[in-house]
Amino acid sequence: MCRHDPAPTLAVHFRQPSPCVGSPPSTGSRRRRLWDLPHACHCPVVGVCLPLDTLRRLVSKAMGGQPQADDYDVHVSAVAECVHRNRLSELLQGELERRYAREIKAYRVFKTPQAVAEAWLSAVRQGDVAGAFWAALTHPRCDAVLQEVLCRDLHMLQHQAGAAVRVDLVRFNALLSENGVLSRELAKAQERSTRALADKAADVDRLQAQLMQLRAELLAKDSRLAFMAEDLEALKASLPGHAAVQRLQRKLDQMAARQVDLEAQNASLRHRLAAMDRASPGLSPAPVTSAGSGAAQDGVPHLSPVTLYLRQKTVLCVGGRSGNIANYRDLVERVGGRFAHHDGGLEDSQSVLDASLAAADLVICQTGCISHNAYWRVKDFCKRTGKRCVFVENPSASSLERGLAQIGEWVSAGADLATTHPNPHASNWPKASQSPD
């Protein structure tokens, strides 16, 4: 290796250099080749401009095999071969030209040594000197003075780079130790995270299984409810009297509500009657002057014969228009009876008619609005059981009122309804109109 005189600074001083071994710089336009440079320049060129792995690759290619020497021996051998043009120097020349083609092209525009020197100083300030050193050293305008400056500056840069490498090596070792600590901490954190993720995954799997089980149970319950609904509908369809039972239930609810109202009204009337009895203890009820009359002498109320007869008894009205049912009920309840109704087979089931007839004390048959089957059923039932029956042809409230008045007149005349033959065709049985037969 060549030895260079130390230079105190990187400044370019154009002074007469000491002579160097090698060919003098060219003054033409052709760039110098590696073997054209002085031998003193080969060491920095090979050491700075070519990485060690690239240098070993080129030496192996030139020798036809992998060199067994260390990096220093490879470097010394390559520098020695650069003095002459040979296979290795040509490979090194081609690699340098290819690697630093951009810098070589940039330096072509410089026409004076001063311009090349200024470009070199700019590269030194930027810290990128490998390509600039090769481009400036082989430039056609690089004279002996500039060549000396380039070698000195690069020599000092190598010293500074070595010191920086030592500092960086200390920092690198500290960072390497710190990196080991952090790597171990990271490994522990990753292990904890892995365990946490595994636990969370197990929880998610467990919750997913529970969710699937709950969904299956819900689906089974929905299926059972659907089957039960179908069975219920089939059961309802299999019961012929289900609709009638529902209608009767509704009527029963209405009658229960009506009974509550009537009981409240009855209690109020009893209180009023008791108050009137206490207010007039010496008064007595006046004799009945006419059948069905509700008037009283001297303002004292009395009960008519039909009221005495129908009091707390059930009056069943079979048939009639639905719009007059409220009027029928009001008329019967005004004379003290309990009202019951059957539409004669229009909506209510015929099977319920017998039960209604058996529970009634008096039957009023609306012959104008009743089915033939219901009419004959009422007539036959009353004939067999002795049930009292009044046939009303016109289905109006006034006709029913006249029939009840006739019952009152018949009771006032002294007839014993309890012992009289109940046949509706008997001459002594009151009729509001002629029966359909």
Your description of this structure?
With 437 residues, the chain is mostly helical. Among the domains are: 34-162, no CATH class; 248-278; 302-437, 3-Layer(aba) Sandwich (Rossmann fold), CATH 3.40.50.2300. It has helices spanning 39-49, 52-63, 71-81, 87-99, 101-107, 113-126, 130-137, 144-238, 242-279, 305-310, 325-334, 351-359, 372-385, 397-412, and strands spanning 314-318, 338-342, 362-366, 388-392. Strands 2-1-3-4 form a 4-stranded parallel beta sheet, with helices on both faces. Helix 13 links the parallel strand 3 (362-366) and strand 4. Helix 2 (52-63) crosses helix 3 (71-81), helix 2 (52-63) packs antiparallel against helix 4 (87-99) and helix 5 (101-107) packs across helix 7 (130-137). The longest helix has 95 residues, at 144-238. The protein is rod-shaped. It starts with 38 loop residues before the first helix and ends in a 25-residue tail after the last helix. The relative contact order is 0.06. The model is unreliable at 1-26, 283-303 and 416-437 (pLDDT under 50). This is DUF2325 domain-containing protein. InterPro entries: UCP020408 (IPR016772). Residues 197-272 form a coiled coil.
